[in-house]
Amino acid sequence: MSGVICSLLPTPRMPSVIFKTNRARITPCKTVQRRSTKIRAEVNFINGEDAKKLVEEEGYVVLDVRDKTQYDRAHIKSCYHVPLFIENKDNDLSTIIKRTVHNNFSGLFFGLSFTKLNPDFVKLVKGQFSTDSKLLLVCQEGLRSTAAANKLEEEGFQNLSCITSGLQSVKPGTFNSEGSSELQNAGKAGLVTVQGKISAVLGTVLICAFLFITFFPEQAEKLLQMSPAG
């Protein structure tokens, strides 16, 4: 009888307690989910022609983030210049060694200065523009402008655009520029420019030789027979 009486008694409602505990435990997950839905601006990547329209028709301001060397060679008229990288003049042993290696290779062949990240970049930009300003960020290859845009986006800037592949991809005459070279060539300096000119001359000579042999084979054969090697 005792077994029958025990079977007829109501069983404890433990499952309901367990469910309540589980609900309490998942509450923090809702908080994490809300944090992940933070709204951020998206950087707009465009070509040179569309960039010109943003400046002329929508009031975007050009912000050049290249180093001073490239900026001095050529830049868009009436632009603002806040370099993302500045010349590294530190004199600790490690920096001196790195600067020496750089100057003997990249500096010699490409005419690039030894630089470091500008610690005041965001501060300088904020000193000239509000976060709702329309900014067209430009650099030579498109990498520095992208990095600069990401930094400004994190600081609350909402209207940011970059030229895909940078100024080197912009067609000549798209923007009015100032400087000793064209915007597209502002990144070229050092021995690379000399090598490029030599290659162009040699290429022209070879093409002319090929055309001469093709259209004037008899004269070309006579010249070869007259040469010391013949």
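Next protein, fold it too.
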Amino acid sequence: MIADAGDVAFNICAFLSTLFALEYGADTFVKHTAIVATRIGISPVLVALFTAGAEWEELTVVLGALAQKRASLALGNVVGSAISNILGAFSLGLLFYERGRTIAFDRSARIYSLLLLALTTAVVPIIYYPKPIVWLISGPVLITTFCVYFGIATAAIVQGVLTAPDSDSDSDSSTGSVNDIDEEDLVDSTTGLLSGQQNETSTRRQSHTLTYHTAYLLFGLFAISLAGYVLSRAAINIVDAFEISDVLFSVIFIALATTLPEKFIAVISAHLGQPGILVANCAGSNIFLLSLCCGIIMTATKGDLDRGSIELFEIAALWVSTAAFTLTVWFGARFAPWIGAVMLVAYVAFIVLEFTVVHIND
């Protein structure tokens, strides 16, 4: 019993400590990818689309779980993270939006929200019915859909149909567009917000070479890859030790842990009066999860989820929260703080029901 308790404690500590490595790796990868892209002449707008709206840490956890034959853990993480991005991160953004100003979502935000609702509506029935032939077809289709989405969004941004994840052009504040972001802003914006030493740090960063930033980019990619594997392995050991559902653990605990960056971005962007970033962060992350990550899971497993599938309650929570997100962006800006409070309460209720009702017999 003592040995078992020691093993459990070790795996819990490994799970928690690996989260820091995962977030550090993702942060390093995103920041230095942005700088390398800027140095070689790629538009910062496209960098924002590729980094801010991409769940690289989630993808590594999914791949790690699949490598260890725990597809239920991977799928639960995707669904739980998608719910958490809306009911957890987006709701916090609405609550912490700059006081004294009314949120104004622009055309790009509305387009992103509609794309997410359409994708979610198409994907949720497929997730709920893991039939081999359906998943065998749907997996490559979803991966292709992500590639098409990325290509169309890129072309639309270049042509000016969509704006970057930025504030409404009619905003009263002069915050600038993503096209005006220079490389030191891409690296040090978070550091500056937290420490107030952005200018000094930025000056030091300018002296670094392209090789330096490329090396950090590769190091960040290695860190998130390694952390994703260790995190999924630790999660599996914890699930097995406590004999709880793969889906329950991944929908709640892993999803909460891996979406911490989205919550941080939501709060900061809202506090600075940037509704475009708030929407793009949420919609882009969920499109990434429900297209690329789901497509990989379906292609790899072909519907073989021998450790539990997603419950109807979780599917319903995903679709209803996405519909609420879209309606808020289109029609609910005036009531944003109230909607944020309701969403946050709904997320707490979702977690409680997962433990007390949905998976009580698992």
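About the second fold: The chain is about 80% helix and 0% strand.
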